[in-house]
């Protein structure tokens, strides 16, 4: 299949993002570059019955676009997250741990963003993604208690773009997703607060990636 410029860019982002993670976790899955055949793609697989191997990594690669049915990466604020910017998300589960990484390209340079895994899928309304995904759920929502809203109990992926508008971040937690895993990664306007009463807050929702 002939790749477009966009698919080649996204494949490059995903390769740079995923290969160090897959190597570090000892994954023997297919190279993520091999799955990057279109500008928007998502792959995940499950081990065959009877095997003891870890689940294959989940890989999402897409270009941001305004909301439309079926969109995998949505921008709600094109000034901060331009349509056509590239995004890649990779999650690897192994030995009771989960490592998640996020890479972006084509955003405004030298700007701070927050990012977290969220409980629900993206939608036309930025609020559709729901609250942060928490391993131990805070009984009081929205969660602003640092005992629950912290990078050990949630997946935080804050980043700052470089002079070219690119960035990469990752999170490692000592648990794996249960029967109800996170459905999206939301990019926010600010780095995430950690103080009581504000913990987990990161400003407006600029974009969302179904995961």
List the helices and strands and how they pair.
Blueprint lengths: L4 H20 L7 H4 L5 E3 L14 E6 L9 E3 L10 E9 L2 E9 L6 E7 L40 E2 L6 E7 L10 E5 L16 E6 L1
Antiparallel strand pairs: 1-2, 2-4, 3-10, 4-5, 5-8, 6-7, 6-9, 9-10
Please name the defining characteristics of this protein.
211 residues, alpha+beta, Immunoglobulin-like, 10 strands
Task: Give an account of the 3D structure.
- With 211 residues, the chain is an alpha+beta fold.
- The chain is 11% helix and 27% strand.
- It has a single domain, classed as Immunoglobulin-like (Sandwich).
- The chain has a 5-stranded antiparallel sheet, covered by helices on one side.
The CATH superfamily appears as Superoxide dismutase, copper/zinc binding domain
**Average residue pLDDT:** 83
Which residue ranges are poorly predicted, with pLDDT under 50 across at least 5 consecutive positions?
Answer: 1-10, 24-40, 44-48
Strand order of the largest sheet: 1-2-4-5-8
Radius of gyration: 16 Å
Biggest sheet character: 5 strands, antiparallel
CATH architecture: Sandwich
How far apart, in Å, are the first and last alpha carbons?
25 Å
Alpha-beta classification: alpha+beta
What is the strand content?
25-35%
Helix share of residues? 10-25%
User: What is the CATH topology?
Assistant: Immunoglobulin-like
E-strand count: 10
Number of domains: 1
Instruction: Assign an overall shape.
Output: globular
CATH class: Mainly Beta
